[in-house]
Amino acid sequence: MSILSAALLNIRLEMERILPDHPCLLCGAPSRQRAWCDACDVALPYLSPAHCPQCALPTHDSAVCGHCLQRPPQFERTVAAFAYSFPVDKLVQALKFNEQLTLARSLAESMLPLIKAHPSCIIPMPLHPARLRERGFNQSLELSRYLARHLDIPLLPTVTQRVRDTSPQSGLPWKERKKNLKQAFACGSEVAGLHVAIVDDVMTTGASLNELAKTLKAAGACEVSAWVVARTLPHSR
């Protein structure tokens, strides 16, 4: 951690100490550190450690799953804090659709203890300009800002672009999602030779992350990690 980063961390900790508690978004009880209280945190659906290290789907012994062995994704590993189920799904939706931007910090903080391999740079999942104008912000960029600042890793938000305004993945059948994202992204040569971490809110099928990782590797990236707040599990699809 740089001297500047350490100084900023000390300032933040002192501000947290003197600021009053705020109500937990889930139950209303006083909370100081996060958007939710400690009691609610214990009940959140944290992802089980017994999962595939590459795609984060459950496996019996934390081994690489059969799907990743047969059809390896373009990203080498996945970091996911939660299973995408209640109430995490509501927290993610509040960030994404209700402009609850303060949630970005708490959700990103939940990812930090799981990040072991530090990449060369962080890239948020890009939005198409039309979608960005409609929403007003990119939730993946909000998550990335906190992670990059806390980990002291360069954030490169403009290296990749979404060049096709694709249909929302959530409204498509599973088999159509990969086709919907074909050649949806473009990437500059700045990533050549780098280990890149892509940050997104949720991994469902992994099609968006896989297509962006494919684009990054075509531009010369040597390794890609996927960092997400939550992973959709098979029983919840």
Automatic annotation (TrEMBL):
Residues 17-69 form the Double zinc ribbon domain. PANTHER family: DNA UTILIZATION PROTEIN YHGH (PTHR47505). Belongs to the ComF/GntX family. Residues 140-230 form the Phosphoribosyltransferase domain. SUPFAM superfamilies: PRTase-like. This is Orotate phosphoribosyltransferase. It holds the Pfam family Pribosyltran. Coiled coil: none annotated. It comes from Ferriphaselus amnicola. GO terms for molecular function: glycosyltransferase activity. The lineage of its organism: Bacteria, Pseudomonadati, Pseudomonadota, Betaproteobacteria, Nitrosomonadales. Keywords: Glycosyltransferase, Transferase.
